[in-house]
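Each lists chain and fold; for instance:
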Amino acid sequence: MKSIIELDGHTLTRQQIEEIVKGHATVALAADSIERIRLSRERIEKRLAEGQTIYGVNTGFGKLSNIKIEEDDIGLLQLNLLRSDATGVGQPFPTDVVRAMMVLRANALARGFSGIREETVQLLLDFINKGVHPIVPSQGSVGASGDLAPLSHLALVLVGEGKAEFNGEVMSGSEALQQAGLSPVRLQAKEGLALVNGTQAMTGIGVLTVNEAERIGLAADMAASLTLEALKGITSAFDPALLAVRPHPELELVGGRIRKWLEGSKRVTKQGEIRMQDAYSLRCIPQVHGASWQSFFYAENRVQTEMNATTDNPIVLESGEVLSGGHFHGQPIALAMDFLKIGVSEWANISERRTERMVNPQLNEGLPPFLATNPGIECGLMIAQYTAASIVSENKVLAHPSSVDSIPTSGNQEDHVSMGTTSARQVRQIVRNAALVIAIEMICASQAIYLDKAEEQLSPTTRKYLEKVREFCPPLLADQPIGDEIEALAEYLLTSDALVKEYM
């Protein structure tokens, strides 16, 4: 039995979005949201009846806002907005992003500041619950005036146009509605603008990416723990009294987590037992990983706020006033996504450096060169490090901030834009790349521990996790292709909540 998550515009969480996106829960409007939507609609209709001029309701859009629209053309204006703005290109967003966009748009409309009708919002919920997924091209948003192109492709299916996927098949929007037993809406005043004026594409990608980044951050901490055991790392650098003198909470969080995971290990060492200091990629794990967690927590906070925010223009206030502002501007999410790009890239960067230490015979504390079982005739995991190096180099390009760019649009009326949707698309790719790099580190640590016959010396926690790693890639007895194994483990790291439930 699926749970029902009520959308009220105020309390939606990133975990609930994931439940809905995965089809584990259905959605409904909260009772108080229905009332707010109705009141907001009445305020729009009252203003129109009084003959007031309202931007985007009986005027044109953007640079065309000085053009008055006749009453008989108000509905056509809204439909034309969707048609003209649906100019996205490129590969379609994956289904999980489209579902997240629909949930977030419905949740924003549930706040009751958009002037939309209840039946229009309900059709959006029906799409989510029945699995009607508009085909939304991934390129075309500049991240201000909302995610106009992506949201227009989504909204077109509500009126029976555009394209959609239903039951695994791509078809016209009208056919998808018909097969799902739904009827298209006929847009009225402001409804087209209410559907497309928002940040739900960048935030939809953002919330899914934050969920994945949390898992990858924990996987990075676990990979580091396994590598510390593989290389007989010095745990003195994680001493709580030492870490406390530089009181960044995330630094202490990572140090404490790794100390807990390594409890009972007979592989790790103390300062001076084998050597005085480890290389930075081992010794500075709390500082580097902790700083990346700072970027995660910042992005999480910004996304959580935006998920339960109104991002329309104009806004229908409870006083009845309809005011124009800039809530559609994606800068808060753009900066958060750019910061997260850098943080996740660093999880991967330092992971690759630890991989290099394990495979490099000059650095790996006496382990076989490149962790080969028969070095020379076999290359072992030499090229796995090449792959990690290639991926972290790609991340360095993707991590360049998109939010520092702005190209004016709409005849220079919209003269500063956020490019936040590009930032969001890039950070999700970086997270997926990081999963591959961290999977490579885990496989190398697993092989190093196997070659050193050290399984019984591991801590109970890391030994248990090592068993999971070896379900995807058992110890290598000879050279073999392991690309599929790396990808399978990376997918597990992206999707498994095992570490999240136990350690967050």
